[in-house]
Each structure stands twice: as C-alpha cells, then as structure tokens.
Write a structure and sequence with these properties.
The chain has about 230 residues and is an alpha/beta fold. It has one domain: Metal-dependent hydrolases (TIM Barrel). About 25% of the residues lie in helices and about 20% in strands. Helix 1 runs parallel beside helix 2. Bound molecules: zinc ion (2 copies).
C-alpha cells in the first residue's frame, strides 16, 4: 500500500516555530490532509511530545515522536521513535547536553510547552537553537539502540546540513535521508531520500510530505518501506 508521510515538523516549542502551531493542531491538520504518518520533531527538545501523542490518538492517526538534534558538528538530524518513552528519555539526554544559554524570546522567539488544549503550561528556558554536545555518530548509535529512525535533515540545505557542514555523507547506518530537492541528490548511498515539510507555521504543514510504499500502516511497515525505497514526491 502507498502511504503519505511527513516526518519533519515543529511546534510552538521551537523558538523559530509559530506560537499558534500547537502539537494538537499539527495532528488535526495531518488528518485533514490525509497524511498517514506524521512526526513532531522540535529542535533539541521532547517537551511537547505528550500532547502530540494525545492528539494523534484522538485523531486516530499514526504519530511518531521525534527530536531534531543539532549535533556538535552543527548538523541537523532527525531522531524519531515509535515509543514516546524512548523519545522523552533520549530527549532528556539531549536537553541535558544543551549549553547553559538562556533563550532570548524577543530575539529568537518563544519556547512554549503546551498541553492538549494548547494552553501554555511551561516555558523552556535554555536556548534550543544551538548545538548540543553530541556527535553525529553518537546520535546515530543512540537512536538506533532505542529502535528509532535516524535521518539526516535537509541534507541539501546551505546551513545546518551534513553536506553543507561536512562536505560529505559520513558512512553511518542512517535509516533514510531527507532533502528539500530529493531528485537532485546525486549520491544517496543506496538510502531512501524522503522529503519533509519542516513546518514551522500552520500553513506549511504537508508542504513537502511524500508517498512511500509499505506492507502495512505501522511503524514496522514504515521501517520496511524505508528499506525498500519505493518513494514518490508531491
Ligand atoms: Zn533543521
Ligand atoms: Zn526542522
């Protein structure tokens, strides 16, 4: 079966994300757009994953729980889990590795922790837009050891990407790659290249979702589909 997936989205916790983009809104809009698997991947933090899970359950949509990690090489990598406890546990590790620099909301935006209703229940204090003290290789290994998917983000972007920052794709066991223009990636190393919306605003949800052939609509089905690599773009 062919499913529609979008594994890269932010919420109001990401300082560069809109305050209006609550985790529940992301789930509801994914349902509206017939997206079968949607992931929330805020920068370096897992604090809005719980309401996202609740909203996905209410919407009866398969939600995955992620973090977009800014590695020590200043590269963005998506760590995505089926199990929310694994995501929150790994997220706590990442949060502890963030430098003790306070966010400046006026300059960089708010970092709102919200509940299912979108009410602000906390403010994340440390800046989430910074590198945290973990290497790309350790992100790959730590994510895979928790049965997660590890996907270098927007590898063709001119900043915060593997190709821009390192100049090459280190030989590591990634689950897939994500690109803005997947057709233009010359050396995929045999990996499936996905697109992801990287939505920071409500209106961008679903902008770069893609279709993947899978044996069944489940996390295991997704993993199988990523290995098979029958992907098409919108
Ligand atoms: Zn990014
Ligand atoms: Zn992002």
């Amino acid at each position: 079966m062919k499913i529609k997936i979008d594994l890269h989205n932010h919420s109001c916790l990401s300082p560069c994300g809109s305050d209006e983009l609550t985790p529940a809104l992301l789930a509801i809009e994914a349902l509206e757009q017939n997206i079968d698997i949607i992931a929330l991947t805020d920068h370096n933090c897992s604090k809005n994953l719980k309401p996202f899970k609740e909203a996905c359950e209410l919407c009866n949509i398969l939600g995955l729980f992620g973090i977009e990690i800014n590695t020590i090489e200043d590269v963005h990598v998506l760590s995505i889990f089926n199990n929310i406890e694994s995501a929150i546990e790994f997220g706590s590790l990442i949060e502890a590795l963030l430098p003790n620099i306070d966010n400046n909301p006026k300059l960089l935006g708010n970092q709102n922790i919200v509940n299912l209703d979108g009410e602000i229940i906390g403010i994340y204090k440390k800046s989430l837009i910074t590198t945290c003290g973990i290497s790309l290789e350790d992100v790959v290994n730590e994510t895979l050891s928790r049965d997660g998917l590890v996907i270098p983000a927007h590898i063709d972007r001119s900043v915060n990407s593997i190709l821009a920052n390192l100049g090459f794709l280190p030989d590591l066991p990634y689950s897939a790659l994500e690109a803005i223009h997947p057709d233009k990636i010359k050396d995929t190393k045999g990996l499936t290249v996905l697109t992801g919306s990287d939505a920071h605003y409500f209106e961008n949800i679903g902008d770069r979702s893609c279709f993947l052939e899978v044996p069944e609509l489940s996390y295991e089905g997704l993993k199988h589909g990523l290995l098979e690599g029958k992907v098409s773009y919108i």
